[in-house]
Amino acid sequence: MKNLSILCRFTRSIQRNMLCSVAGLVHNTRHAFSTLREDPELDEMMEFLDSLKNFEKSGVPKGAGTDSEDGFDLGRMRRLMGLMGNPQSRFKTVHIAGTKGKGSTAAFLSSILRAEGYSVGCYTSPHIQTIRERITLGKWGEPVSAKALNHHFNTRREVIERAVKLENGCLSHFEVFTAIAFSLFAEENTEIAVVEAGLGGARDATNVISGPDLAISIITTVGEEHLDALGGSLESIAVAKSGIVKNGRPLVIGGPFVPSIEYILRRKASSMSSPVVSASDLGNRSALKGFCEVTGIPRQLCDIVLQIEKDYDLSIELLGVKLRMLGAHQLQNAVTATCAALCLNKQGWSLSSGAIRTGLESAFLQGRTQILSSEEANLLGVSGATILLDGAHTKESARALENTLQMTFPKAKMVLVVAMANDKDHLGFARELISVGDLDAVFSTEVDIAGAKSRMASASLLKCSWVNASREMNMKVLDLKVAESEDQSLQAAGIVKSQSILLAEGSLLACIRAGVKILNERAGEQPGILVVTGSLHIVSAVLGYLHS
Ligand SMILES: *[C@@H]1O[C@H](CO)[C@@H](O)[C@H](O)[C@H]1NC(C)=O
Ligand SMILES: *[C@@H]1O[C@H](CO)[C@@H](O)[C@H](O)[C@H]1NC(C)=O
User: Fold this and answer.
1) Which residue lies with its CA nearest to atom 2 of ligand 2?
2) Which InterPro entries is this protein grouped with (predicted)?
3) In which band, very low, low, confident or very high, does the pLDDT at 506 lie, cut at 50, 70 and 90?
4) How far apart are CA 192 and CA 214, in angstroms?
5) What is the pLDDT of residue 502?
6) Residue 203 pLDDT
């Protein structure tokens, strides 16, 4: 471990050089980054949705996801769907709840179904850049187009407004948008929808799906997010999540779970006569084998081997699957999705091993260990280093990111560019990542947020958390203040060759460019890795810049 000695005892001129180069870039790019506005074509729909209660912005009330007096009223959602002609009954649904891994499992499973040629709708939340990402359709699983969404909204608007009136204005943004998604899936003749629960409780709007419409339910993991909304304990969360189990319909559980939690899920399934398939079954002999590259982008090589005999006989052997989604947790999600696919085969769907492999390999989510192509890096004005975007913003997700980085790039030099919302655990986040690999520098920054509740922590406050985290861990850091000045090259990168981690703040693009410069100066056999993380907003800002 590096020595305790926070500080910058180096000459003024070196310091000035370093500062100038960071600061010089700050000015040119001040306004280039802010999260995108929705497509103008969606103005009317967004205006309507914004007139409704939005719990994603206001926070979810205590107990809202539990099956109790405090719970959201699912009756409201049922009446809305009834008025709309129950579109959710015109296709089969795989319903996914869980604390972590819902979105990735949904991505794997919908990708598998598409690879077999089924017409698939996928409904997830939240989104990174546009609300359209929440509804994906079609052969490639693209977000619904603004045109199609707007058109569909207009055809349903009258009936939705009638429902809002009947409920005295008590329909939420999430409820109405979920109804629009289901209605759109029906309209597009979707055969099967993969639906991620929002809050994930018994009273989640998506839980309007009834037994006969459900193909299977999946519970990925049970952890302590939304603790208050789901009743205050891990057990109450498990009970709330198991509210998606339906009579006689199979339940796939991911895990691994602590025994008391698995017991709750299994007891619920058994009370509903639902067969249970566990991805953490002893018959799971899947393993991470190593890494390879496909068109310059790293992938993880996995064997997915299942031989499950309880409740159903399920088996598959896929060797050398090249997952684009990285990390041990993604192997776990891939195994869960594979269990679900095999379970669907028991119900008369026919997903071949080939389609399962293709689906797993092509599944991809923006902003989860997303590696930019060299063209994309060029658009940011950098080349040489690998740029990775990850929306991690809790200490748990930072730990998962840290594990993935250690595993995927064990020897690479790293630079982090971090922005975080001000209500997050900045110190906890920094603690998880400060010991990652061969860390050269951490840049703190801020991005503008359009239309979200959270505000960003100031870059200087954020930097303090990293100074404090490094102090706790006995790491040596160089703490630089950014002064305003003209553009200069980063000659001072040499000083980073010392054992210290450079900490500095600046605008997003300036930080990315300065970070890549440092990595290129220090390039060893492997290219360095620049990781942009801390919030979905910073990921969104980079993607927005690339797509503008
Ligand atoms: C399946 O087994 C692999 C290898 O032991 C493990 O990494 C993975 O986490 C397991 N999956 C689940 C869902 O338990
Ligand atoms: C860092 O530590 C100092 C001294 O303990 C404390 O005053 C300060 O509030 C901390 N700052 C952050 C952002 O954690």
Assistant:
1) 468
2) Folylpolyglutamate_synth, Folylpolyglutamate_synth_CS, Mur-like_cat_sf, Mur_ligase_C, Mur_ligase_C_dom_sf, Mur_ligase_cen
3) confident
4) 10
5) 84
6) 73
